[in-house]
Amino acid sequence: xxLTILGGGGFRVPLVYRALLDDxxxxxxxxxxxxxxxxxxxxxxxxxxxxxxxxxxxVPVRVAEGLDEALAGAGFVFSAIRVGGTAGxxxxxxxxxxxxxxxxxxxxxxGVLYGLRTIPVALxxxxxxxxxxxxxxxINFTNPAGMVTEAxxxxxxxxxxxxxxxxxxxxxxxxxxxxxDPDRADYDYVGLNHLGWLRSLTLDGTDLLPGLLADEDALxxxxxxxxxxxxxxxxxxxxxxxxxxxxxFRRETLDSVRxxxxxxxxxxxQQQGGFFERAAAAGGPDAVYAxxxxxxLEREETYMAHSREASGGWQRDSHDLEGGGYDxxxxxxxxGILGGSGTRLILNVRNGTTVPQLAPDAxxxxxxxxxAQGARPLPCAPLREDQLGLMLQVKAVERATVEAALxxxxxxxxxxxxxxxxxxxxxxxxRILQRAAGEG
Length: 440
Known about the structure:
By secondary structure, this protein is an alpha/beta fold. The protein has helices at 13-22, 38-52, 67-71, 85-98, 108-132, 145-156, 166-177, 209-214, 216-219, 223-228, 230-236, 245-248, 250-258, 264-280, 285-301, 305-310, 326-339, 385-407, 410-419, 426-438; strands at 2-6, 30-34, 61-63, 76-79, 137-140, 160-162, 186-192, 195-203, 206-207, 239-240, 343-350, 363-371, 374-377. Strands 7, 8, 9, 10, 11, 12 and 13 form a 7-stranded antiparallel sheet that branches. Strands 3-2-1-4-5-6 form a 6-stranded parallel sheet, sandwiched between helices.
């Protein structure tokens, strides 16, 4: 089975390939990379060549020159593109900050701007998949994952599934903190991408979450416990996705980033730009791989640094620096579809009746059962009013963003920005939109 990776020059592609090499099931017979930047994809191909060295049966890798060539004959398509590159992310973050509101890759005004730029390209990809590989499954890594998956589903229906590593990381960290084997625990998780809550964590029929919330030492042993603090977590009665820190602690996070010399986008722009420049001249797969590994570790160590600073300042745990997550979720999803075994994963899929207050075709992030027919969202307990209210407002923003990108509708774009709870000002929204349009 052929796996095509769009955005094949992406920095984290080697994590996917490493997972494929370690996969005892060996479902993939060939990996095809496609990227609009030939230098980047050539560097990443060298890293993959180094990973394959000494492997008894490495998965062959091929670089396709064009999108159609890459898609033809694919069984699975991983979409991991970054429209506008890291320079686009810098603008997405800096423009909102200049107006006194948070700018982040997927959250707030930054997420809306990124979506407006990305959705037209994602829709074109969906249309080419439908034409050239109609039986393929598209696994969307591209951020903002919820709204991009929702846009692509208008063409591909249930054959596009969005993934994120934040929820599975939260579940595994919480289970370990509660003294449970993460692979044996059941859980109730629901929300939107980068906006969800772990509301139960059960082992052999016993919910471990109340005990975990009451144990201050256990909460202090993992990232979300330190990020949100025990008092607030007990008030919520749930464990939020790490990105909800931007909503619950907006002022603190804004204060930590407002006068920063370097946003996350600027850090990655310099770091990755420097990596690809040095790697192109490094001379051989061994040197390129060593440079990639050092750069990857630095990237993981600095993840969500401003939120950690706003919550007291602390370092990430060593087991959270492995860099895995997306790769494991994607591999489990592929095996679930190919094997039809009923695997349970947290995925971004069409809502159906899971959250009755949302439209059936709205993309939600929740626990799904994966079979040969795809991913089916499982029923969940009713949402609390504060959870539902935030979901409804942000979903309205996501759908307005898709509408704006699809129809080039400035009114819908303004509505998306102004109604976002982290912007909440039509005047500020209009200025952000005007500046973004002026800067491309």
